[in-house]
Design brief:
By secondary structure, the chain is an all-alpha fold. It is built from 4 helices and no strands.
């Protein structure tokens, strides 16, 4: 039986002001995480957001027109939408 593959990790050193470190530590503690876990989660999320915000659609004029029409069109009526629109908001209850 083969041994499980080991994931290699890389050390990242970061210099921060003491007040920033303290802020990070307080936030990490509030979420029940250590500093490394908190910073890794926050960094990963920021990286994903930065990359997802830069998706580019290449459309010809006809496809772009259809895309805009779909965005501008009202949603087709359906039971789930009707329920959503008739359910009182939690803060209105």
């Amino acid at each position: 039986m083969a041994a499980p593959a080991q994931t290699r990790r890389t050390l990242i050193n970061l210099r921060v002001a003491p007040q920033d470190r303290d802020l990070i530590d307080r936030a990490a503690a509030a979420l029940g995480k250590n500093r490394s876990e908190f910073m890794m989660d926050a960094s990963r999320q920021a990286a994903e957001d930065a990359l997802l915000d830069r998706n580019l659609l290449h459309l010809d004029a006809r496809a772009f027109g259809a895309f805009l029409a779909a965005l501008d069109a009202p949603p087709a009526p359906n039971e789930a939408l009707r329920r959503l629109m008739t359910t009182p908001a939690p803060w209105d209850k």
